[in-house]
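2024-03-11 09:14:02 DEBUG pipeline.ingest accepted 1 chain
2024-03-11 09:14:02 DEBUG pipeline.ingest length=173
2024-03-11 09:14:03 DEBUG pipeline.predict start
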Amino acid sequence: MRIVAGTWAGQALLSPGGRVRPTSEELRAALMDLLGPALRGASVAGLFAGTGALGLEALSRGARRCDFVENGPAALHALKANVAAFRVKTRTRIFVRDAIPYVEHLGPAAYDVVFADPPYGSRKLDRIVDQWLRVPFCAVLALEHSPEHELPVRGVQRRIRDTVVTVLRRREA
């Protein structure tokens, strides 16, 4: 697994294996292409961050900073190692906690872009989207989920094999 494009294109990422399901290079490329200019100078967060692949890819493509939210021990080990390897400690923060209470405490426009890649089959994705609809904590919410998962709102979608990415954008008043 490696960074697809940007400053660190081709640089390898550490992955812990096991139950962690890192976002594939092909899927990250499709998602980043959907986001395009929204990443330049953006404040980004990765919920259920795992190895940090999405956030690091965003930093590689011009995001200003990234907060990672993860609480799995194996994923945290890989995440911390990747942040150290990319020498981005001053541009990142790692929050060791569950993503649901984390977003429940965010105010409006806390981030420009938020990635959410919860375990497939859980209702955590719905809880993240519901909270975003109540309090739009970011301008762009990028979701990774199974094709069978029906979202309560529509966004731009791309399907890559057995995974869908959905990008939701906050409507301006």
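2024-03-11 09:14:41 DEBUG pipeline.report The helical segments are 25-35, 53-60, 73-85, 99-104, 124-134.
2024-03-11 09:14:41 DEBUG pipeline.predict end
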